[in-house]
Amino acid sequence: MSAPARDPHLTDPRLLDDETVLVRWRSSRATYWRDHAAMGAIGIVGAMVVLFLLGKPDQAPVGAIGVMLGIGVRAVYLASEQLSAEWLLTDRRLLGPQGRIVPLRDLAAVRPVLSDVQLVTTGGDKHLMKHMADRNAVIARIEAQRSKRKKAKR
């Protein structure tokens, strides 16, 4: 009996022969830009507070412009890298960008951090699934597969 044919859109060289991709998640463009807008707003307020505390309120507009430019340049510079990041949930592991591999059995915690999902392993390693469109759905899907895997092992 031959192995079932793999969908070419769901293949990855890191997959094991009998491993199946269940879900692919990519960073959300809208979430990426919203996160940077929020960072900019927080940065502007922070810069203005610091300038007022230093007794230089007249420099607050310059500080605000500097923060906007800094966050804007950062956002544009990192956009292609961040928006191409992809995570795959298989029947037994999470495969992430830059060769990250997290076996589901090694996950100690899966938690939300702003629009990101933080993966913490039993060994203490931490990984971020950044700029997820629906972080709660991602967490629920990972937890469901993790529970299913635990039940199958019994």
Automatic annotation (TrEMBL):
Name by which UniProt lists this protein: PH domain-containing protein
Highest taxon in the source lineage: Bacteria
Residues annotated as transmembrane: 36-54, 60-79
Keyword tags: Membrane, Transmembrane, Transmembrane helix
Organism: Plastorhodobacter daqingensis
The keyword Transmembrane helix is annotated on this UniProt entry: yes
